[in-house]
Amino acid sequence: MSASLPPDFTGLRVAVAGDVICDHYLACEPRGLSREAPVMVLRHLEERYGAGGAANVARNLRALGATTACLGAVGRDESGRELLELLEGEGIDVRGVVSVPTWTTPTKTRIIAAEPRRWPQQVLRIDREPAAPPGPAVWRELAGGLRTLAGALDALVVSDYGYGAVGDELAEAVRELSTAGVTVVLDPRRRAEGFEGVAALTPNVGELALLTGCEPTKLTEPRALACAAQALLERTRARHVLVTRGNLGMALWGAGVPGEGVFVAASGSGNVTDVTGAGDTAAAVFALSLAAGAEPVRAMQLANAAAGVVVMENGTATCSAAALRAALPLAPPPLRAAVGRPGGEA
Fold first, then answer.
1. Is the pTM of this model over 0.85?
2. Is 280 considered catalytic here?
3. Is 227 exposed, middle or buried (CB count within 10 Å of its CB: 0-12, 13-18, 19+)?
4. Which of 19, 160, 274, 280 is catalytic?
5. Domains of the chain
6. Of 2, 44, 50, 321, which residue has the fewest beta carbons closer than 10 angstroms?
7. Closest Cα to residue 247, out of 227, 269, 275?
8. Ramachandran sector of residue 36 (left: φ over 0; alpha: ψ -120 to 50; beta: rest)
């Protein structure tokens, strides 16, 4: 296959399980300063709903052509209804999303403002969160739904945003699927225990620091980053660790990869507009690429190119197969790390 072409993902059957989040956007234009307080007055223009967390991973998987199922939990509230309607409208199977009567769907409301003919910017975010996880019975139902898909999956992404879905019940089901040969990628937030032996972990630098007890500021240095990634590999027995590094790109460790790691500079055709959801896109594309038979370094390059597409958009966005094809010829090549120079060539 040409290096400028991604694999064909249309025959893959994939699922994402974890914390589904509703993204709520309020578009406004500034009117001036309030006479009541030293704050900006905004005029409401429109609002829309989007998908975050595991739901955003599902949208990215589907946008690349894979048959996709989403598993998680929502409340029986407006955010939950809007989120399910959005996913169903894009052809995503949501039968594994548990509807919980007394729960609040995690919702992030972003206030976006701009003057006419100016690029909109996020000025405020308001989070509505459940007071507590919905209880073990819901997570058992989620894990049971995942087990029913076991024989019909090529890949699974586990998306942890800290709302409780990625717990012991889900971990047990994930281990069963991984043992059965499903390509499992865990995008972790606070824990990796219980997910031993998965195909890959995709933490960002802050999550890697939390998972390994390292100081985040020290992980800008390639040698320290490599030590932390290798420690996580040993502890989890994962085959690979892909670390997303924001404007520094990505780095990969694991089977068949040099001990110092392979780095790739951040991809993108212009100035970053919004990094929201870029990690979701990276995890989705990395998992699909591995399931399609791509070598891990190639899968990292594909994930990096896709992330470079979505950060050019406002809010959570998806990368289509066409957009990925267009981005790949301009994507930076993976390089072995030079000590002391993040992303440098050895």
1. yes
2. yes
3. middle
4. 280
5. 13-21+52-105+132-336 (3.40.1190.20)
6. 2
7. 275
8. alpha
